[in-house]
């Protein structure tokens, strides 16, 4: 199989490429990535000899068409992804997430190539903290931020290209990922690298907000299940029953790093901060037989902490810039 992976130099995409090269020798991978601040060649260094990396933008229709025409399938990860950046400047989110997805859709339509579109549970908005209900594929779209609304727009484009043009596509909406190669702007790597660089960890508001954590490798195994056996036109929710408050995650990071679990700063909350995300992954489990392998959050978190300890050369160069942005936002 010739597989085109957009955004393959970012966090989830790079982990996807690593595991694909390791586990599927019959797959020839081409990565298309603009290498924005969030993507780096270094994330693909361990597989540099095994994949083709094309530096380019998913809004470049001619380039995308050429690469799609050479492929049997596309897994579309590329997006602007950081909610705080979206609040500060939404324009790149419109361009990459909406026009970029449109460009990919037009290329797979023209070339009749199978597409899997990677999306987020944030398209559903949030749930009350005290409720028991969870997101399903039928939950109404209700995005809160410029990030989640552009991802929602992209999902709707995919759905309509399936219906109107018969494009062979699937969608997955996943909960919050953790693992190696995640940018230090994101919650878990930010706290780990704050401790490693002698900064104080920072918690938004009271930390009551709940996220449903999944290890990036479990997400990527689910993406492969959907790509190979998912029903065309279907949406699958990916989650690993990993609900935890941000406060609980903060305390776990500090405990695993041998720090006082209360030794952090509370900072001003993010505007419109979603309260709770929770995924019902029944369709994926019951129909496609997927189950997460990283079921012990503390073990996955400890391994992630160890990866950041051992790979300062990867994250060190981005840390000061990321913290400067947070300082400007007062967070
Ligand atoms: N991180 C999560 O917890 C999470 C959860 C659910 C879904 N997702 C989705 O998974 C996908 C990947 O997320 P991530 O966390 O790896 O993001 P990331 O920000 O770490 O990586 C995004 C990658 O896309 C590339 N990119 C951005 N704009 C581009 C453009 N216009 N052209 C080409 N490449 C471009 C970047 O260079 C980067 O390599 C996104 O679609 C995101 O919405 C993420």
Automatic annotation (TrEMBL):
Name used for this protein in its record: dTDP-glucose 4,6-dehydratase
Upper lineage: Bacteria, Bacillati, Actinomycetota, Actinomycetes, Mycobacteriales
Keyword Mitochondrion: no
Record-listed E.C. numbers: 4.2.1.46
SUPFAM superfamilies named among the record's database cross-references: NAD(P)-binding Rossmann-fold domains
Pfam families referenced in this protein's UniProt entry, alphabetically: GDP_Man_Dehyd
CDD domains: dTDP_GD_SDR_e
Coiled-coil residues: none
InterPro entries recorded: dTDP_Gluc_deHydtase, NAD(P)-bd_dom, NAD(P)-bd_dom_sf
Key words of the record: Lyase, NAD
Domain NAD(P)-binding: 4-297
Enzymatic reactions: dTDP-alpha-D-glucose = dTDP-4-dehydro-6-deoxy-alpha-D-glucose + H2O
Known cofactor(s): NAD(+)
Family stated for the protein in its record: Belongs to the NAD(P)-dependent epimerase/dehydratase family. dTDP-glucose dehydratase subfamily.
MF terms (GO), sorted A to Z: dTDP-glucose 4,6-dehydratase activity
Alphabetical list of Gene3D superfamilies matching this protein: NAD(P)-binding Rossmann-like Domain, UDP-galactose 4-epimerase, domain 1
């Amino acid at each position: 199989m010739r597989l085109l992976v957009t955004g393959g130099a970012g966090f989830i995409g790079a982990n996807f490429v690593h595991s694909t090269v390791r586990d599927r020798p019959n797959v020839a991978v081409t990565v298309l990535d603009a290498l924005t601040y969030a993507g780096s060649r270094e994330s693909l260094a361990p597989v540099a000899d095994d994949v083709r990396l094309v530096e380019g933008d998913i809004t470049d229709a001619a380039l995308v068409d050429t690469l799609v025409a050479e492929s049997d399938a596309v897994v579309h990860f590329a997006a602007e992804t950081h909610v705080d950046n979206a609040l500060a400047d939404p324009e790149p989110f419109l361009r990459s997430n909406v026009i970029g997805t449109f460009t990919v859709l037009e290329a797979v339509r023209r070339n009749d190539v199978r597409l899997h579109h990677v999306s987020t549970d944030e398209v559903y908005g949030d749930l009350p903290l005290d409720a028991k209900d969870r997101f399903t594929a039928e939950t109404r779209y209700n995005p809160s931020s410029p990030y989640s609304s552009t991802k929602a727009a992209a999902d709707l484009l995919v759905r309509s290209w399936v219906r109107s043009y018969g494009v062979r596509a699937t969608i997955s909406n996943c909960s919050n990922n953790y693992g190696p190669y995640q940018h230090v702007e994101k919650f878990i790597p930010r706290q780990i690298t704050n401790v490693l660089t002698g900064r104080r960890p920072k918690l938004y508001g009271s930390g009551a907000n709940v996220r449903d954590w999944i290890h990036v490798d479990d997400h990527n195994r689910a993406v492969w299940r959907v790509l190979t056996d998912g029903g065309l036109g279907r949406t699958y929710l990916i989650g690993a029953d990993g609900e935890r408050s941000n406060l609980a995650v903060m305390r776990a990071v500090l405990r695993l790093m041998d720090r006082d679990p209360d030794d952090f700063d509370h900072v001003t909350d993010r505007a419109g901060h979603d309260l709770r995300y929770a995924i019902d992954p029944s369709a994926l489990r019951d129909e496609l037989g997927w189950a997460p392998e990283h079921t012990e959050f503390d073990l996955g978190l400890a391994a992630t902490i160890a990866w950041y300890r051992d790979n300062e050369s990867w994250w060190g160069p981005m840390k000061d810039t990321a913290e400067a942005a947070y300082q400007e936002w007062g967070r």
